[in-house]
Structure formats: C-alpha cells, structure tokens
Design a protein that fits this description.
single chain, about 325 residues, alpha/beta, N-(1-d-carboxylethyl)-l-norvaline Dehydrogenase, domain 2, 2 domains, 8-stranded mixed beta sheet, about 45% helix
Length: about 325
C-alpha cells in the first residue's frame, strides 16, 4: 500500500463522514458515497464544521470527494470502509457490489458495531482481504479502532490495516476472534444489562445507576482498565469478590423484559422524551454538548501528552 492510501467510505451518515474526516486530516484522498442524496450533499459541510469546531485545518475537507455512484467511489481505492446501517442483508449486498467494482488488491472493511464480520463477508469471492474496523462515535474524537479478522483474513491484510489506522492517530487493537460485539460492545452491554436489572428489580432508580458509575469507578476507567484494577487489588481479592457477587448478577441470555416494556410502550429515550429517564426539551442537547466537550478536552490532553513525550520537549 502506498504511503498515502486512497480511501473509499461507503455511507456518509453519523460514522461515515467522521471516518472520512480522519483520513482526510492525515493527508489521504477520500471518496465518499451514500445512497441517501441528503446525506451525501451535506457530508462536506458537516466535515468542514467539525474541523472548524476542533480547530483543525479546514482545507482537509477538500480531500474528500463525494460520488453519486458506488463504482466511482471504490474503483481506484486501496482501502474501502463500509459504514451503512446496521443491517446484515444490506451490508452483504453492499459488499457484493463493492467486490464487482473494486481493484483485486483493495482491502474491504466493515464498521459494524456488533455483527460478526464472517457473516457480513460470507458471500465474497475473495474473503482473504476482508475484515472489520469498528470505530467509535464520534470517530474523530474517540481514538480506538477494533480490527477484527475472520478465519479467512490474510495476516498481511491485518498488518496493513493496523498500520494504516495507527498512522492516522488511532489506537488499533487486534480482536483475535470474530464474535458478536467484539470487545468494546460486549463489555459495554454487560454493564448495561446489570444497570437495567438493578432498576428492574427495584434496587435503585436510573439516576442512581448513572450517578454511581460516573462518580465512582467511571472516574478511573480512562486510566485504569478493569484487569489492571483486578491486579491492583489482587487476583485473590478479585476471586473472593466474584464468589460472592457473580451469582447475584443478572445473567439472562435474553433482553430484559423491563427494556422490552419500555420499547413496547413507546418510551424510546431522548427521541420520544422518555426512556429510563424523562427528558426535558433542552436536556438532550445539553447532555450531547457535555459529552462532546469532555471528548474534546481528552483529545487536547492526549495531544499535549504526545508533544511532551517527544525527544527534546521541555
């Protein structure tokens, strides 16, 4: 792969335009496609607005080219990222079409959050060049990318993908087995399952759950991972705690009836004004702003730490 690979992103929505932005900021030429005309037409403006908000070089948006046809988008690309809706059949159809137009040496990546990559890529003629790259939202602020190979993925494809993402400032991690949810979402939704069970069983309300997480172990998570923490307190103490608490933790293999009830009654969260919590008219926007500001501040801290670690830094 050349120093600055040509990137194609299929899907210009929430994730796709942000992925295109990251590659463009780091000097890559990006072609971007979406079947929804509105998404495609607004993509460059959204990227420019993000760059302006972050204080990044706005001219990076000029390296993103929108394409009305999938063939034009992928035909010259070295690396092709699919970021369409989270629907297995749709993703399979998209990759079937991509394979018809792409170069034989192009790498195919899916940005699915939870669907096994093997299922998405199962109908490809050449499965050795296909893998998953799960970015987190928003892609230009959250550094992690999970790189998921399948039993067919060539080692060289994995290596090139990891190197490409490291070079654009991401933190790529290799997920060694292709399982639903990969690593991050399995951990996240294990926490969510118990959080819902606590409310469902009347142990506390939703506000208490969120307060406990944010005001206790959540404060440490950015610098102290769960297994580091287990070693910190000692594996013997961790074992003793698990023998007491794990039998009491929710372990149902199906979704919570409480959650099912919220959805069936139209309590869909912020979009309907009520979910686990009742949301005032201005509260969703305020919360989103707090999250974005938190992530932007973390990005600035990361950049400062990187500068200070360079040789010759004061």
């Amino acid at each position: 792969m050349r120093t600055k690979a040509r990137i194609a992103v299929v899907g210009a929505g929430l994730m796709g335009h942000g992925i295109a932005q990251v590659f463009a900021v780091h000097g890559h030429e990006v072609s971007l496609h979406d079947s929804q005309t509105e998404n495609l037409q607004s993509a460059i403006g959204r990227i420019a607005a993000n760059l302006r908000d972050l204080g990044d070089d706005e001219t990076a948006a000029n390296r993103v080219r929108t394409c009305s046809s999938l063939a034009e988008t992928v035909s010259e690309a070295d690396f092709i990222v699919e970021a369409v809706l989270e629907d297995l059949q749709l993703k399979q159809d998209v990759f079937r079409e991509i394979e018809a137009y792409a170069r034989l040496d192009a790498i195919f990546a899916s940005n699915t959050s939870v669907i096994p990559i093997s299922e998405i890529m199962s109908n490809l003629a050449d499965k050795t060049r296909a893998l998953g790259t799960h970015w987190w939202n928003p892609p230009y602020l959250v550094p992690l990318v999970e790189v998921i190979g399948t039993r067919w993925t060539a080692a060289a494809v994995l290596d090139r993908t990891v190197a490409l993402h490291a070079a654009v400032g991401k933190i790529p991690v290799h997920v060694k087995k292709d399982v639903p949810g990969f690593v991050g979402n399995r951990l996240q939704h294990a926490l969510w399952r118990e959080a819902i069970a606590l409310v469902e069983n009347g142990i506390c309300d939703a506000l208490t759950v969120d307060t406990v997480v944010k005001a206790s172990f959540g404060r440490r998570l950015a610098v102290l991972g769960p297994l580091e923490n287990a070693d910190l307190v000692g594996t013997d103490l961790t074992l003793a705690i698990h023998r007491t608490v794990l039998p009491a933790i929710d372990s149902r293999p199906t979704a919570s009836p409480y959650l099912e009830g919220l959805v069936n009654s139209g309590k869909l969260g912020m979009k309907s004004g009520e979910g686990f919590i009742t949301w005032g008219a201005d509260e969703p926007a305020a919360l989103r702003a707090r999250v974005l500001n938190h992530l932007k501040e973390a990005r600035l801290r990361d950049a400062e730490q990187q500068r200070s670690s360079q040789p010759g830094s004061p």
